[in-house]
Amino acid sequence: MTAQQRPEQTGAGLFPWGARATFSPGKTRRQRQEQWQQQTTILVAVLAVSIIASAVFIVANWRQIGGAKAVSCAAFPQFCLPHAGGSTTLPALEAAGVRQLDGQSSGVPGVVRGVDVNGIPTLGDPSAPVHFVTVSDYACPHCQNYHETDVPRFIEDYVLTGQATFGIALATGTGQFYSETASQAALCAGEQGAFWEMSEEMFRLARTRQLASAFSLDQIRDSAREMGLDAQKLVECVASNRYAQSLRQFRVFAGDHGVSATPTVLVSYGDSNVWTIVRRDYESLKQLTEAAHRQ
Q1: CB-based contacts of 143, cutoff 8 Å, min separation 6
Q2: CB 74 within 8 A of CB 100
Q3: Once rounded to an integer, what is the mean pLDDT over residues 38-66?
Q4: Which residues, at least 6 apart from 39, have a Cβ–Cβ distance to it below 8 Å?
Q5: How far apart are CA 284 and CA 264, in angstroms?
Q6: At what angle do helices 29-65 and 195-208 cross, to 10 degrees?
Q7: Residue 232: which region, alpha, beta or left (left: phi > 0; alpha: psi -120 to 50)?
């Protein structure tokens, strides 16, 4: 008797769905271990890079948040200039002989720290053919950057060499009350021959702290003490609101010349006291200065 043969099974059966799906065999234990080691290595590398980047960030900010620099020619060579004052309405501001320099002047003969006819603290030789004023607010981030980059470069190359003057008219629109306090602190420091140094300190504090902390009377007192100034005298000056009128005059000066934002730079030639807004970048100031000397 011949055995009956079973019919071959096909993809179609008694049920409407197809044959069971098949998958390639999984990875071996060795392959899984190698993959795990690769992933672990990548993770460790990423963590190491993150830790190094964080450390660099912390160190950079620690250096910025560190204590104020003492008022001296060594710490502020760009401001190591004889005090000349010059304001009839603000006789105590950067007055002649207010502070004895502890080093040789960084400027050529004739370059001084003074106050111009508008009551604006100024560096340079008053007889220079071209004069610049920046309207700046300590709370303004663009001002902070400008006074860290273009300004010190221009002062070194063209102000200390007697080719131009450079002044700051303090604005308070960005930080309002806080900027007013910081501005009064800088002007009050000018009574101790340290307007420019305190100005740098206000920019530093604004870059590294919240304004309420940066420009508090307690912080101003601490900064003044670290800078070697009479801290109590300076805080009393700020509290007296002594330079409120000066700040109003700065606002009028800026408004009269079309200033609507900070920082804005204006230029004047000779003794004209006629001011015009110009581009503030270093190259523009350089070109204007050199052009004034060619005339």
Answers
A1: 134, 136, 137, 174, 203, 262, 263
A2: no
A3: 55
A4: none
A5: 13
A6: 150
A7: alpha
